[in-house]
Design brief:
This protein is mainly α. The protein is built from 10 helices and 6 strands. The protein has a 3-stranded mixed β-sheet. The protein is globular, with a radius of gyration of 20 Å.
Amino acid sequence: MTLDRRTFLAWLAMSAAIRGQTATDDWQNVPRVIAIGDIHGDKDALVSVLRMASVIDAAERWTGGASHVVQLGDVPARGPQTRQALDLLMRLEQEALLAGGRVHALIGNHEVGVMWGDLRNVLPAEYEEFKGDGSEQQLQGAFEREVESLRKQGAWPASAAEQAALRASWFERHPPGWVEHRAAFRPSGHYGAWIRRNNAVIRINDSLFAHGGISPKYARTARSTLNAGIRSELATVSDSPPPLSTE
């Protein structure tokens, strides 16, 4: 599945019809708001911006008091520090709340894409962040399950040369850490579960925040409907890594 920004916006609009339980998406009388755009796996840049805004200290702890930080989505992909950036936002979210502030990590098209298995923009270094002591064994197991599935379908090549080429191609595209990455972004995974409870559209004071904008056709749709729709859609993602592919 591929999911670019235009597709994401259309999907967001379609999801608006789905209703469900929603979290708070409106805050008023906020003294200071800092909005940060796409991070794309660059935790160092995120830290620099937060320090420049004086909401974290040299130890990367919240110092923003009642300020609200809005991260407009697209934390994963295209950079080597996706996991570090997510961990920082998740920790600051709790620290800010205790101090009377807020950190809002909105859902962008890359959060959705990674959860749905669109990994075109995920760098090998991002998988490296998820690599553990058992990564090689987990990857080998995943490949063997794929081979078994292909055999049942009659799609596994007969010649040893073709098998070797397929194996080399598959492992080139699925480096160590891939299995753990996919598990972390499934709906019940560490990052997937967190993403699923976040908002895509919020209002703070008189400003509306969203990733990529909203079509005029849906501009009057309630924020609660939009957010509930997206959460419902993400909850339908299979609770296991997507099917492996040799293509």
